[in-house]
């Protein structure tokens, strides 16, 4: 599904990704966790083609970014920072995206609008939306398009409790239908409850990647995360 091999990315003299390797299989919900500056957002931006990289390889379903539009159709990306056409309505913008991806199921589109309680807001200009409403529009677009993989950076930021419940419900259904999810988060309890696998990133490298059941045992993900950070620190010192 998604394979990252020996990925390196630097900004000026600072190396952000340092030989990152990651393989995500079809049907996974992978939580990508790490401290500030670990390289989570940079990794997502590299995968989605927002920024370039110096070394390594990224493939989705055997396609690299050189495949152009066919590569981009393999995923839908929900960034943490959302830039929109302020005078365009959420409804028209999602219809535009649906045309780009070749999706025509307007009935499902209307169902998702209702689930996220956006019936009134969706016809208004996106410049009038709150941050949480913009997140909902992006989630509606992602689920109605239903690409092979949905990639998200902090997907629950700005969502109200009802929208979080809808998000969990739709993620579960999307994966049951053959989809794959890759999202970064600093909310370890959400990763623990939603994800099937977790990858912990530190200083541009994966220091732990496994099924959530194998990782947890009797402990919480928070405890495992802290233990992994301490172990990696001791190893680097030795």
Question: In brief, what are we looking at here?
Answer:
This protein is of the alpha/beta class. It has a single domain (2-87, 147-237), classed as P-loop containing nucleotide triphosphate hydrolases (Rossmann fold, 3-Layer(aba) Sandwich), CATH 3.40.50. It is built from 9 helices and 9 strands.
Describe this protein's structure.
The chain has 238 residues and is of the alpha/beta class. It has a single domain, classed as P-loop containing nucleotide triphosphate hydrolases (Rossmann fold, 3-Layer(aba) Sandwich), CATH 3.40.50.300. The chain contains nine helices and nine strands. It has helices at 40-47, 69-72, 90-101, 106-115, 131-145, 161-176, 188-194, 212-216, 221-237, and strands spanning 2-11, 14-24, 29-34, 55-60, 75-78, 149-153, 180-184, 197-202, 205-211. The strands form two sheets. Strands 5-6-7-3-8-9 form a six-stranded mixed sheet, with helices on both faces. The chain has a three-stranded antiparallel sheet with strand order 2-1-4, covered by helices on one side. The longest helix has 17 residues, at 221-237. 35% of the residues are buried.
Mind sketching the topology for me?
Elements: E1 2-11, E2 14-24, E3 29-34, H1 40-47, E4 55-60, H2 69-72, E5 75-78, H3 90-101, H4 106-115, H5 131-145, E6 149-153, H6 161-176, E7 180-184, H7 188-194, E8 197-202, E9 205-211, H8 212-216, H9 221-237
Helix pairs in contact: 3-5, 4-5
In percent, how much strand structure appears in the residues?
Answer: 25-35%
User: What is the CATH level 1 assignment?
Assistant: Alpha Beta
Counted by DSSP, the helix tally is 9
Q: What topology, given as strand order, has the largest sheet?
A: 5-6-7-3-8-9
Kindly report the average pLDDT value: 90
Main β sheet profile: 6 strands, mixed
**What is the element string, with H for helices and E for strands?**
EEEHEHEHHHEHEHEEHH
